[in-house]
Amino acid sequence: MTETTSYARAQQQLRDRIRGTWARRPLYIDEIIRPGLTANQLASIRYASKQTEDTGLTHFLAIVPGLQSMGYGDWAKFTSDFAFAMHEESAEEQTLVLFSEGETSARSFAYLVTDNGPVVPSGAPELMRSRSDDFLPVELAVPYYLQVLVAAAHGTEPPPAPDFDTRDPGSRSEDYIERFGLDNADPDTLVFGATAAAALGATVWLLRRRNRYSWRTELTTEPELVRARNLKTAVAEAAAPIPEPDHPDDATWALYDRGRRIQDALAILTKVHPDWSESADFSHRNGVFVLVTLDRWVRRQLRRRSTSAEDEPRFCFLFPHHRSGIDDHVLKQSGRSLTVALCADCRQELDAGHDPERLMVPKRPGSTRAVPYFQRTDAYALSGFGSFQYLDEAVLDEMSPQSSAVGRSR
Fold first, then answer.
1. Is the entire prediction scored with pTM above 0.70?
2. How many angstroms separate the CA atoms of 225 and 215, rounded?
3. Which residues, listed in sequence order, are joined to residue 96 by a DSSP beta bridge?
4. Distance between CA atoms of 134 and 353, rounded to whole angstroms?
5. N or C: which end of the chain has fewer CB within 10 A?
6. Phi, psi values for residue 95, rounded to 5°
């Protein structure tokens, strides 16, 4: 057996071991090196993984033995291919994947993976070595690599690299041991103490981020639309006949036809989803809200006596109840660039590098797992609440056994 064949076999065996663990939990520590890690090192690694899990982001972490054969480039290819495979299995918009050698973290690879592929975030390579040119110990490197990945996923600034130096603290100032006032007697206590002190600041930082992005893991329940917008009454009013235009021409008859489609769509939506007003699937309330808003607009236009027409209402792609300053915006979603309607607040958040709040709904009926509504394949996702096609047309196409012909032509 050649060295190349032996190495390929070892890689495959390692891949199988990691994948077997990752199918059950996000943290893999190879049994070959586990006995060589101290209790403090294991605690630090597990704590870092738990903190990352608490952000709501999907992550995978592997602590592996040192691999001497085949070189740095081969290990990079192995880890990047593996990271992308795990992202595809996760079916998430973003996946965090970190590989780190347990002895020195010398070959750590941190990837933020999207449908476009794995990317090493800015700041990650800087964590490779300490100020004294030693590789960061695994108990310091892993928490910070994961924090850099979380920051990259949220579009925020990464935390500073740990101030680690293996030289005698008496020979220089600002050494991390001296900086944190740690006892010199126990190396494990020193390292874990530094990690704990640094983690205290990281915890505050992560909690702040988690609070800001808590909507990522929760089903949308606010704002309350049914009572605040009087939606049940609006649905009943929308059932009244659409008034024929006072001054008929092609444009007003087309508007009349549109009103009939909106009316049909609203009737079908509320029939297919009779629990729309209290369902955990908040997208139905937004769908009703959009359709009754359009219904009222059509009726106003058909009754207007002035020559000036009122622009059709537009709704924010990310959260339809956002109505202020709607304009077109190029948004990257799931590896694609889409031109969508966004409100002024969401555009401002994006410009500032933040992730705007989105309409989070169950992944499937009865599920409590929250996903952005546009990751599904229903009428709301296909229409983008008006960004891609009229919502009324999408509802008629997706929710009725046959596409409704009422109002589509005169």
1. no
2. 17
3. 59, 112
4. 34
5. N
6. -135, 135
Q: Are 238 and 266 in contact (CB under 8 A)?
A: yes
Q: Is the peptide bond before 187 cis (omega within 30 degrees of 0)?
A: no
% of the chain at pLDDT higher than 70: 75
Q: Which two tokens stand for residue 140?
A: 């310091």
pLDDT at 128: 47
153: tokens are 């996923």
What distances in angstroms separate CA 167 from CA 160, 176, 178, 363, 388, one per listed residue?
20, 10, 11, 52, 60
pLDDT above 50: residue 194? no
Query: Which DSSP helix (H) or strand (E) runs through 253?
Result: helix 250-272
Residue type, 268: I
Q: Rounded to whole angstroms, how far apart are CA atoms 68 and 357?
A: 45
Distance from C-alpha of 381 to C-alpha of 363, rounded to nearest angstrom? 12
SS (H, E, C) 221-247: CCCCCCCCCCHHHHHHHHCCCCCCCCC
Beta partners for residue 95, in sequence order: 58, 113
Cβ atoms of residues 224 and 365 within 8 Å: no
Highest mean pLDDT among 8-12, 62-66, 208-212: 62-66
Q: Residue 292: what pLDDT?
A: 97
Lowest mean pLDDT among 125-134, 228-237, 245-254, 336-345: 125-134
- The answer to whether 255 touches 302, Cβ cutoff 8 Å, is yes
Q: What is the DSSP letter of 386?
A: G
Say how many residues make up the chain.
410
Residue 192 has pLDDT above 50, yes or no: no
